[in-house]
Specification:
116 residues; mainly alpha; 6 helices; 0% strand; globular
Length: 116
């Protein structure tokens, strides 16, 4: 009986944790993930590594679940394609995050405010 309780507890925990990644996201969560990608890009010095592709995938997931409207869906799709690729450029990342940049008020990796 104790073993069955343990298995049941593991199933409940797995379902609860799995559900977290499907929850809608807020502007703050999108911008935090965007800043993480920007920091990876800034540190890369032109040599993109797995961290950038991983951060692009994470931002894709967060942006795709943004609850503030559908404007980030195209960014999420473009970031998903980049995260699955073997190479990218800063320009491709900037193009893929245009709506996110507007939402967060800064350019990728710059930290400076965008007009408007």
């Amino acid at each position: 009986m104790t073993a069955m309780r343990g298995v049941l507890l593991m199933i409940v925990v797995a379902v609860a944790l799995g559900g977290c990644s499907l929850a809608p996201t807020t502007k703050d969560e999108v911008c935090e993930s965007y800043q993480e990608l920007g920091q990876s890009v800034s540190k890369a010095n032109g040599f993109f590594d797995n961290a950038i592709f991983s951060d692009a995938g994470s931002l894709s997931s967060v942006a795709g679940r943004y609850e503030g409207g559908d404007q980030l869906k195209s960014d999420a799709e473009a970031l998903d394609a980049i995260s699955d690729s073997k190479s990218t450029t800063v320009m491709a990342l900037m193009n893929a995050t245009q709506h996110i940049a507007q939402l967060c008020g800064q350019q990728l990796g710059r930290g400076s405010s965008l007009p408007g």
